[in-house]
């Protein structure tokens, strides 16, 4: 094979390996095996070519990463949360953006529809819930719904419900993403209607201070679960050089990693809703502090830190180790 054709056939793959760090040890091992095979071919037919030097450097970099990861196996859990999961999230930031935009669009549509038609909120949230809330407003306790059950029962009930809803959003991605879009539509409509209802009653700011104590993490988890659903859909619809089944399995594995990363978010959101949201008369500064800390964590761990870590790994010095 001519060197030019060799480059044309493989350059896209090499660039992807160089620019997108592997999200799992299995993927890293596969990349390393492919590079070693390509390097062996290049050394045989183009021993003094720059492509041979390039492949040697790229393979060496992955080799050193594998060696370093072997020493980290004793802290596998720490490695997962500190490195593996953030790199997986970074790989699918585009899907995360799609999920956020779709959810926000549906929430805005719901709020606009509720402003045009006063029966819209009842159609989305149900007559029973609206009447119960109106009754609580008349009693002077508009957020009494969060006080109807003891703390531990509510915590467990909300945690299980959050996990159920988010995993439904994730698993629905297997239907070419249509199921995930529908779940984002359903939850976005409920949020937009719910929030508009309180603003229409003159309780907009109090509702933000109370509901978004737990809602910041809860809604963020649904959006991130939507991104995990789009990961499955993307691998199903665009398998690339893999078989559709192989690509689907990879997408499901990477999406499941993201869902595992959401488990602490589910639990903390349920704790806030079960134990803290019920104290609707807490000082505004405390409520705002909890809300902002939750928002900061989501942006830091799921957006900023993955970008920073990815850049750091890409800019790591390439040592001239010969394979």
TrEMBL record:
InterPro entries listed in its UniProt record: SpoIIM-like
Pfam families per UniProt: SpoIIM (PF01944)
Signal peptide: none
Organism: Flavihumibacter stibioxidans
Keyword Transmembrane helix attached: yes
Residue spans crossing the bilayer: 96-115, 163-184, 196-213, 219-238, 258-276, 282-304
Protein name in the entry: Membrane protein SpoIIM required for sporulation
Keyword annotations of the record: Membrane, Transmembrane, Transmembrane helix
